[in-house]
Specification:
By secondary structure, the protein is an alpha/beta fold. The protein has 7 helices and 7 strands; from the N terminus they run H-H-H-E-H-E-H-E-E-H-E-H-E-E.
Length: about 220
Amino acid sequence: MSEALERLAQAAASWGAPLNPAASAAIASYLAFVRAKNTRVNLTADAEWDALVLKHAVDGVFAACALRPLLPNAPRILDLGAGAGFIGIVFKLVWPEAQVTLMESVERKYRFLNAAATRTGLNGLRVLNRRAGSGAPLTSYERDYDVVIERALAELPEALRLCAPMLGPKGLIAAFQSVEPDLAELRLAKAMATTGVTVLKSCPYRRPDEARDRRLVLFKRKEA
C-alpha cells in the first residue's frame, strides 16, 4: 500500500469507518484507471497519485463515513455532476450496499464512468448521461434519492436548485464546501427558501495534506 493510501486509511479510521483491505485495493485500482485514462480523456488536472488519493478519493470516503449513521443500509445515492467519479465510485467501493447513480453531462466523462463502473464489478452502480435542470421530465432513475451529493457542481445556491428536484421526501443534499457557508447571504437564503430546504448539520473534516477544515453540509427538507 502506498504512503498516500495508508494516510487515507488512517483518515477513514479517525472518522470511525476503517477501510478494509478489499476497499483500499479497489480504490487504488480505480485511481490507477483514472490516471491511465487521464492522458487521453482529460478527466482531471490533478494527475499526481497523492492528489488523486488525498484530494479526491478522500472526499468520497468522508461522505460515506458522514452519511452512514443517517441512512438505511442500502440507500439510493446520486452523485450529481460526477466528473471522473471521485465521489460516487469511491462511495460505492467503501459502502457496497449503497445504490449509486453517477450523473454526468460531458460525453467523454460519461464514457469513462461507464468503463470505470464496469471495472468495479459491483451491482447497483449506474451511470446517466444528463445535465441537471434541463431536458425531459425526470425518470424514476433520476428522482427520489436518499442523498444527492455535489462537489464543485456550481455555487451553492445554484447547486441547491439543481439537487432539490431529485430528492425523495426525506432526502438529503450533501454539499462539499471549502468554508462554512453564510446562511444569511441573500442568494443562499433565497435558494434555501425556494427549494424548501434547511441545514441539518455541517460536518467538518480535514484532508490529510491540509491544515484547515472543510465542510460537508447536509441539507434536508423543511418539516411541514
